[in-house]
Structure formats: structure tokens, C-alpha cells
Amino acid sequence: MVLQALLLDSFRFFRNHLFSILLIIVTVVFPIELFRDYYTESLLGQEANLTSEFPVLLIGLLAYPIYAGGIIFFIVSVISGNRLNARSCWLLGLKYWGPFLLLSLLLGVVTGLGFVLFMVPGVIALVRFSFAEFDLLLKGKSPVDALRLSWEATRPYFWLILGGYLVIFAAFYVPYFGLIFVLGDLKVELGIFEVLLDTLYAVLSVLFTIFRYRVYDLVNERRDLGPRPEPYEDVG
Prior knowledge:
By secondary structure, this protein is mostly helical. The chain has helices spanning about 1-15, 20-40, 50-80, 85-95, 95-115, 120-130, 130-140, 145-155, 160-185, 190-220.
């Protein structure tokens, strides 16, 4: 079964390269989450709203292209046999910071609007734009062209991608949100534990990126995207 093979490959890649993934993600995200926690505490009981949270949201948004783009370059580097270190991944993410940020904003607006409109359009947009980041970073496409190409390329693979997303969400995010709900219901003071949970959320999101790229690589395996060691799942 294709979906099962892709998921197993993705989970195995995540496990085999967990240390590098943690280094790329946590080094950037953890300080931001610490700042968020400190900033929230400094509000002294004020009700949180978009205005009061804006500085934290802005910092997170500006930092996102660095580690998210870095993760994509790391995945590609491992598969191509030319593994990059964390610093090189961050620098590549920084190099494409502007276009990636614009693409992220466009994706956020489109998918967010779709989820507001009875959720289904949001799910469709989330799946159909799954390849956009790869086309932008790896093929040098503009944000708009990357969205267009992804919309076209993912059409035959909609249910495959959606199925993978659902499995990853059920396996990892349902327990995560369940834990958050239970702790909130018990009115537990999370403190630094909340910072760790928010950082874990960012780390788990890499599973979606790995799976997306695994499908993208499969779709483009006959094109010139660089040498890929075989079999994919045994890359260590």
C-alpha cells in the first residue's frame, strides 16, 4: 500500500534524524516560546487579545522561514547524500526568508479563510498547496507560481496526501491536544511545561513536512531533482 509505505518512510526518517531536527527547530523555537511565556506573565492579568499578543506573533512569524525552510533543506540534503549541518540549514532558510515569508502569509490567509468557510475549503487548500514550499525553495519559483504549480501537481494525489495528514494528526496531535485539554480542565499551572509543549508542537509539525516531501519526491522522481540514495527509508 503506497500510503503505508510513505508514512513508514516518513516516520523512520523522523526517528533516524531526530537529533538534527531538534537542533534546527528547538534552537530557534524554544527561546521564542520562553519569551512568549515571559511576555504573557508580564501582562499582569490583562486579557490576551490580538493587540497584546502582536509582538510575540510577529517574532514567531519572522523566525518561521528560518527554521521551516531550514528543515526542508535538511531533508533534501540527507536524501541527496550531501547532509547539511544546522547552521547551513538556517543560512539557507535566511537566504530565502523574504519569498518564504510571503508564501507563508499567502498560505495562512488562503487556508485560514477556507477553514472559516465551513472547514472543507480549508482542508482542500491545505492539501492542494502542499508542494508550494518545495517549488519555491528548490525550483526558485515565485510564491504565486509555487501555489499555482502545487495546485496543479497535487490534483491526482489529493486523497493520498489527505490520508497521510489524517494518520499523522491522529497518531501524534490527538494525544498532544488531549493532554492540553486534560491539563487545562484540571487547571494545572503549566509554567515551563507549557513552553516545552509548544516547542514539541513545532517539532511534531516536521512530520507533515517530511511526508509532504516524500510524496513530492515520489511525484518528481523521474525529474532532475538530484541523486537520491535507494531505498529512501534506509537513509541514516
